[in-house]
Design goal:
The chain is an alpha/beta fold. The protein contains 4 helices and 5 strands. Strands 1-3-2 form a 3-stranded mixed sheet, with no helix packed on it. A two-stranded parallel ribbon has the order 4-5. A hairpin with a 2-residue loop joins β2 and β3. The longest helix has 12 residues. It is globular, with a radius of gyration of 17 Å. The two termini are about 20 Å apart.
C-alpha cells in the first residue's frame, strides 16, 4: 500500500526524490520490544527502502534515532538533510449512516486536539512537510 503523502507529493510536484524511505511504526501488544527486534529493513529498489519499526506500548518511537541506527544495516541516512513527508488526516462529521452524529463530533474534536504525529515521533518540525487529507465519517 502506497502512503497517501507519497502519492500526493508525486501528483502535485511530479517528482520522486533520489532517496526514498517508507517507514511504518507498529505498536505491539507487549510493553517493550528489544532493540535488536525493533527494525526490519527491506531494500525495494535502488535507493528505495522500507523500514518497519516495532515498538511496545510503553515505548515512544524516536524516528531520527531509529534512522541513525540503520547504519548497522549499511543504510546511511543524512539526518540533517532529511525531509519527512507525513499525512495529516482531518476528519469531518457528516450525517451519513453509521456512527451517531454526536459521537462523530466528539471524535472530530478529540482528533483536532490530539498531539501532532511529528511531535510524538520526535521529528524536528522544520524538517516536516504535512500533506492533508479530509476523511468524512
Amino acid at each position: 500500500m502506497t502512503p497517501p503523502a507519497f502519492m500526493q507529493n508525486i501528483r502535485h510536484n511530479k517528482v520522486v526524490h533520489q532517496h526514498v524511505v517508507f517507514l511504518s511504526v507498529v505498536t505491539r501488544r507487549v510493553p517493550t520490544v528489544p532493540r535488536e527486534n525493533q527494525v526490519e529493513l527491506t531494500r525495494m529498489d535502488q535507493d528505495i527502502y522500507r523500514i518497519i519499526v516495532q515498538q511496545g506500548f510503553m515505548q515512544t518511537p524516536d524516528i531520527p534515532a531509529i534512522l541513525a541506527a540503520c547504519r548497522r544495516y549499511a543504510l546511511e541516512i543524512p539526518l540533517t538533510d532529511t525531509t519527512y513527508f507525513m499525512s495529516r488526516l482531518t476528519f469531518l462529521a457528516t450525517p451519513k449512516p453509521g456512527m451517531a452524529l454526536w459521537r462523530e463530533h466528539l471524535f472530530v474534536f478529540l482528533a483536532r486536539n490530539s498531539r501532532r504525529a511529528s511531535s510524538f515521533f520526535h521529528i524536528p518540525s522544520e524538517q516536516v512537510i504535512e500533506i492533508g487529507e479530509v476523511i468524512e465519517i
